[in-house]
């Protein structure tokens, strides 16, 4: 029985990973692959993430009491929201207490398809854009306007910054 | 506690629904919306479903013993595979024992975004294509070549036919 449960959880994660991959590939294939187009594709992915984030957070917070402050909201994003999408929590949350938050995921699922190694780092932005949008959309629906950026230092660790 | 679990399950389903919707919209927006393009978009969605189905079934059957026959395979698709994607089983499976199977889902999730009513039936094919591909891809990876078609009679019931 343990095996089946494990298998299904892995497949649950996989569904999102595969769909995200198809979405990304399609956007990059259908548009020009010129350097100038890259920014536009990133924006498209980010916008899609934004809409999905908005929809998801609405369902997730349906029966949740209001958050008492921004830190409380960010904790919900790091725990419940992140788990819903990535089946794991954010590993580390830091803040300067002036509206800037840094979220660290040490094993970011969407990078698991990408091989480790510095030569692949240049491809990272297109793997991160959708998720930045997700967080921005979720926060927006909770009344928090934000700019969300992401960076990879050592794969598969990512740092999401919310300003 | 009950509320949270429920909320999360609903959000789990929602993630796939929202992503599928974005994918569909993007394909239809980026291509010409002419009548002649419709068939090509359906094919694109079907192919994406095919690849996702292939990937998913590989994860799902990792620790599963081989299936003893085609009927056994189809039962797995109706129960485990369908549940993985749609969080519910197929409601009814029929076969003529000559390679044709009819799978009936009485509450097909991807149609829940579409209002009931005959005037919307014409839009149904684009909501079904991805899922036909999913099943075809899963079966293909299990060594079963197939043609999978879908039809809606009364929403949100769908009939998937595997030949």
Euclidean distance between termini CA atoms of chain A: 45 Å
CATH class of chain A: Alpha Beta
User: Which parts of chain A are unreliable, with pLDDT below 50 for 5 consecutive residues or more?
Assistant: 1-7
Which oligomerization state do the chains in this entry correspond to?
A: homodimer
- Structure classification of chain A: alpha+beta
Number of DSSP E strands of chain A = 4
H and E order of chain A: HHHEEHEE
Helix content of chain A: 55-70%
Strand content of chain A: 5-15%
Order of strands across the biggest sheet of chain A?
1-2-4-3
In CATH, the architecture of chain A is: 2-Layer Sandwich
The most extensive interface between chains reads: A-B, 35 and 35 residues
If you consult CATH, what is the topology of chain A?
A: Muramoyl-pentapeptide Carboxypeptidase, domain 2
What is the H level of CATH, i.e. the homologous superfamily of chain A? Trafficking protein particle complex subunit 3
Number of helices of chain A: 4
Average pLDDT taken over every residue of chain A: 84
Approximate shape of chain A: globular
Largest sheet of chain A: 4 strands, antiparallel
């Amino acid at each position: 029985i343990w095996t089946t449960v494990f298998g299904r959880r892995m497949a649950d994660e996989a569904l999102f990973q595969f769909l995200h991959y198809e979405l990304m590939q399609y956007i990059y294939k259908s548009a020009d692959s010129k350097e100038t187009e890259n920014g536009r594709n990133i924006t498209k992915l980010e916008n899609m993430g934004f809409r999905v984030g908005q929809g998801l957070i609405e369902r997730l917070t349906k029966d949740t009491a209001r958050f008492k402050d921004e830190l409380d909201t960010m904790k919900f994003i790091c725990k419940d929201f992140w788990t819903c999408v990535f089946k794991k929590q954010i590993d580390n949350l830091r803040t300067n207490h002036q509206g800037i938050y840094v979220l660290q995921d040490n094993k970011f699922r969407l990078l698991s398809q990408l091989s480790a190694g510095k030569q692949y780092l240049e491809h990272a932005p297109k793997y991160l854009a959708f998720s930045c949008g997700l967080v921005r959309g979720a926060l927006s629906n909770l009344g928090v306007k934000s700019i969300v950026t992401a960076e990879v230092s050592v794969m598969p660790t990512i740092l999401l910054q919310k300003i």
